[in-house]
Amino acid sequence: MEEQKQQKPKIHSMQPVKKPAEPEAPKPKARLPRFLVHVTATLIVLAAALCLVAMVAFRDSLNIDSVKRWFTYRSLVRGDSGRAESFSYDADLTDTFAVLDGDLLTCSRNAISLYSGSGTQYINESVGMENPVVSTNGSLAVVYDAGGSNLYILGQRTLVWSSDDFESILSARLNKNGQLTVVTQASGYRGTVTVYDAAYSPVMSINLGSAFVMDAALSDNGHTLAILTVGQSNGAFATSLELYEMNYASGQYAPDFSCLLGSSVVLETRHTASSVWALGDRGLTITGHDGRSSGVSWTDKHLRRYTLSGDGFAAALLGKYRAGSQAELWVVDELGQRQTLEINEQVLSISAAGRYLAVLTGDRLDIYTDELELYDSLEGTQGARNVLLMPDGSAILISADNAGFYIP
Fold first, then answer.
1. Distance (Å, rounded) from C-alpha 368 to C-alpha 371?
2. What is d(CA 53, CA 327) in angstroms, rounded to the nearest whole number?
3. pLDDT tens, residue by residue, 302-318
4. SS3 for 53?
5. pLDDT band, very low/low/confident/very high, at 214 (cuts 50, 70, 90)
6. CB neighbourhood size of 166 (10 A)
7. DSSP letter, residue 46
8. Strand 356-361 vs strand 347-353: parallel, antiparallel, or unpaired?
9. Is 178 helix (H, G, I), strand (E, B) or coil?
10. How many CB atoms lie within 10 A of CB 128?
11. Which residues pair with residue 233 across a beta bridge?
12. Please, which residues have CB within 8 angstroms of residue 228's CB and are 6 or more apart in sequence?
């Protein structure tokens, strides 16, 4: 028998088994020394406290308006006082001035001009007017010849629309939506009020024969028309206010509300979204669309200067005598509440816009808030005879032959 060959068992080489690496212990983070931690915390608290103090101390100057001014006038070269270099304008102090979207609008009998803060002239429109009057809504302006037939709409630094077909214009006003209200004389009537849409097409017209129409204004939301008339009540001169709801489809218009405003001669009118402001020689009346009325009387004082251009307030400069340097500056809010400020200097001009009120005297410009708190002052304004204020608190100072912007 053949010897069976013994098979040797196969030997497999065994590799050593690696144990999984144990995670390394995290290295301790470097810590600031304790005294540095205390110093950092103290500095943070100090910075927060300083910011709070600054916000309280400069709450009137460090606001959204200062930010707006920085962006609007950052390209305008100004001196340390905040005044930009003045520029010549083609008009004189007897002409009419207004602010149109941050630019200076000048109107004379022969021309309408618009200047930027640096003096660039964007509009130079030749016209022929006997009595130019300007009214603005901020972004648009209407210029018309009182008693004449010419009317111009300006905006976006250009002439938007014009017409010479009107019959003896008595007043023209734009509301915030750009809708136009024009009062004219008409044969057989004591006044005609026509409302135009934002494209300057007539949408309604009211002829009045019972009383003479002094003024008319459409509310800022376009829902209510206010008409001011003068006539007689119990044999005495009286001013009346009539309110009409704007129902364009009916074609028939009768006042929804009417009231007497007394014997005051209305000098300026403003119609907001909810109320009619009527400022006259004897006082101010604020009448809501609900018929409620408030206001103030100054029958024992002489009205020297006034403005209804503030946001939610009116201003009037009143004196015990018709002339003189002593006067009171009244600010009246929409509830008829007043605040007063004694002034012992000759006031050349006042202007209001936004929440600010400017008072120009012989050598100084003072800008107040609507609470009659002093916001900013500029010394050395000799030569300036007129001031126009803008909603951000900046102003335009107008002299006999030049004008310049002032940015607080």
1. 8
2. 36
3. 999 999 999 999 999 99
4. helix
5. very high
6. 19
7. H
8. antiparallel
9. coil
10. 11
11. 236
12. 213, 214, 215, 216, 239, 240, 241, 242, 261, 266, 269, 278
